[in-house]
Design a protein that fits this description.
The complex is a heterodimer of chains A (about 300) and B (about 300). With about 300 residues, chain A is an alpha/beta fold. In chain A, about 25% of the residues lie in helices and about 20% in strands. In chain A, helix 2 links the parallel strand 5 and strand 6. In chain B, helix 1 packs across helix 6 and helix 2 packs parallel to helix 4. Classes of the chains: A alpha/beta (about 300), B alpha/beta (about 300).
Chain lengths: ~300, ~300
């Protein structure tokens, strides 16, 4: 059985990637599961989608914890522990990163037992990140090596049709670009072995001492605790203030920032809280002096 | 307006009641409105949150709020507000200092406010409950992928109904028919108008509606940076009239001198794309324009 996880952010098309790959495998004669995993829908928040494909009935359900292939559509996610990208990767799992950095860098940083490949995303413009799904699906299909290009393109047609002809045409181009980009690695992902209850390692139990109720289940009375949540990791573009041109009309950027992530000091000078700024760029769009520009957030977020 | 504390932009609050880390989408106007409202109301506000996008505002153990938050089922926020008000009144009767009293504010999406929460809200207004009812109206069930709600406008594409044939319910008129203490429409792109209305509502007792149109990048399909711009267009095209009801009279607080054509607003959003592509749907564009024209024509001096 093939087990594949696509990791990305809400809005980058990973659900679509799983559907395209799932449909392509189905057209190639496999039984297939594909499903996105997220909580409430949040554009920019980490999410993933899974595909399972086998020649017979699939009894497994839920999270793919022993992936044969993991595709990461957004390099920035590798810095987010909560995205759980590395979960269950072993010597036979292949990690494909999509972005700018070379495979050797991730191999070195992540110290994985299995192979790492990197696919450059230069063919995808900044304004069309929602097409990443088709690109990733094409790349994944080539790595599996059991899906014909015709099946892949048919699957794109089926899954993207509701978005209109232009979306289908661009998705086909990018699916094929992903496919061609991994030509020399065709078939390098193998099927994982069947899972059964007998092969499952028992969980690592942790004995917890029983504590008094007020210690074991404290009420949370303190406010403002979300300061611990680093939503700045959602950002793909970073707004940067050019203080030489900032007019100190503090109310514009700070008032419009949905996340209260721009504070102003006594003389009206704004400061962006990059730990929490999600990179929506409302401040850039509204700054009357055009004193805010966007720079790409690259690699592991700093 | 002479009694308002908010005459000019520089009168807007500088301090922020919320901190970052809230899990709303990048560019969320609902969160933007919440910070603008709370920055005026201040810390002594207790929020009664009906299920919706803001369900995740407080995700244990993280809260971006200074004050308290009570979560209710979708239809039950007005009932929750009644219980909270009664409990505070009881404490006051038992000798709690008046300065420890709290402003009780429902926070509701349009799914609850226009639909399943309407009957309990109607009852609460009829009982004269002393509470604020803040609605972030993103015109659909945004948290679950933008299905049609009773606030969905004519012609909008949603995940459940395709292109909506019905018309947006007039919640402002429904509230006004109850003769509440106060009712106002707001939008985050007009923070000064918003602050004046919130300030006025805070000084009154009884049932008070604050109804904010909340442009939603995820559900309406536009770039997150355009949230404020889409809000401006909603006002300039006359689609979202800014008005208030107090002492039995409705006053428009910002009348566009020359209304832009509604399509300037519609064309910015993917949910209306089918009205423009593959060919213009003149009939439906005309229906939307005619409804807006009819609204303004009925006004004295319109």
């Amino acid at each position: 059985m093939y087990r594949i996880r696509f990791h990305g952010r809400g809005g980058q098309g990973m659900k679509t990637a799983s559907r395209i790959l799932g449909s392509a495998l189905f057209l190639a004669g496999y039984e297939v599961q594909d499903a996105p995993h997220y909580g409430a829908e949040r554009r920019g928040a980490p999410m993933h989608a899974v595909v399972r494909a086998a020649r017979g009935p699939i009894q497994e359900r839920g999270f793919v914890d022993r992936p044969d292939l993991v595709v990461v559509a957004d390099e920035g996610l590798l810095a987010e522990a909560g995205a759980a990208i590395l979960q269950g990767l072993d010597h036979h799992s292949l990690l494909l990163t999509v972005g700018r950095e070379p495979a050797a860098l991730w191999q070195d940083r992540l110290r994985l037992a299995g192979p790492v490949l990197a696919l450059a995303d230069a063919v995808i413009a900044a304004g069309e990140r929602h097409f990443l799904g088709a690109f990733c699906a094409g790349a994944a299909a080539r790595l599996l090596g059991v899906v014909a290009l015709a099946c892949l393109l048919q699957a794109v047609d089926d899954e993207v049709a509701s978005f209109g002809e232009a979306a289908v045409a661009r998705s086909r181009e990018l699916a094929e670009a992903g496919w061609r980009g991994l030509e020399e690695h065709a078939g390098s992902v193998g099927e994982g072995s069947a899972a059964g209850a007998s092969g499952q390692a028992p969980p690592d139990w942790i004995e917890l001492q029983a504590e008094a109720g007020d210690l074991a289940a404290p009420s949370i009375h303190g406010g403002l605790s979300s300061i611990e949540v680093r939503t700045g990791l959602w950002r793909t573009q970073r707004p940067v203030i050019d203080y030489a041109h900032c007019r100190r009309c503090w109310w514009v950027c700070s008032e419009f920032c949905p996340d209260s992530a721009i504070s102003v000091d006594a003389d009206g000078t704004p400061t962006i809280d990059y730990a929490h700024c999600k990179g929506c760029l409302v401040c850039l769009a509204q700054c009357p002096a055009h004193a805010i520009r966007a720079v790409p957030e690259r690699g592991a977020s700093s | 307006m002479s009694e308002t504390a908010f005459v000019r932009w520089r009168d807007l609050p500088r301090g922020r009641q919320l901190v970052g880390g809230a899990p709303m989408c990048a560019g969320c106007s609902g969160l933007e409105v919440l910070h603008q409202v709370l920055d005026v109301l201040g810390e002594k506000t207790v929020i009664i949150n009906s299920a919706g996008c803001m369900s995740l505002l407080v995700s244990y153990p993280y809260s971006p709020l200074r004050g308290s938050w009570l979560y209710t089922a979708m239809a039950s926020a007005a009932a929750g507000a009644q219980g909270m008000r009664d409990a505070l009144d009881l404490r006051l009767a038992q000798g709690m200092p008046a300065e420890d009293d709290l402003q009780v504010m429902v926070l509701s999406g349009d799914g609850a406010a226009y639909g399943m929460g309407l009957s309990p809200a109607s009852g609460a207004i009829e009982r004269g409950l002393d509470f604020i009812y803040l609605v972030y109206d993103n015109e659909g069930y945004g948290n679950t992928g933008q299905q049609q709600s009773d606030a969905t406008p004519h012609g909008a594409h949603t995940a459940s109904c395709g292109s909506y044939r019905g018309w947006k319910k007039d919640l402002f008129a429904i509230w006004v028919a109850h003769r509440p203490a106060y009712a106002a429409t707001l939008i985050g792109s007009e923070p000064l108008d918003l602050a004046r209305k919130v300030d006025k509502a805070a000084r009154l007792k009884g049932p008070r509606l604050l109804l904010a149109l909340a442009p939603c990048p995820t559900g309406w399909d536009f770039d997150a940076s355009a949230t404020v711009e889409v809000g401006h267009l909603a006002v300039k095209t006359g689609i979202w009239p800014l008005k208030e009801y107090v002492d039995g009279r409705i006053t428009h607080t910002k009348v566009p001198r020359e209304r832009l054509p509604v399509e300037d607003y519609l064309v910015r959003q993917g949910r209306f794309r089918h009205l423009f592509e593959p060919r213009r749907d003149e009939a439906r564009l005309g229906e939307v324009q005619a409804a807006v024209d009819a609204y303004w024509a009925e006004l004295p001096g319109g």
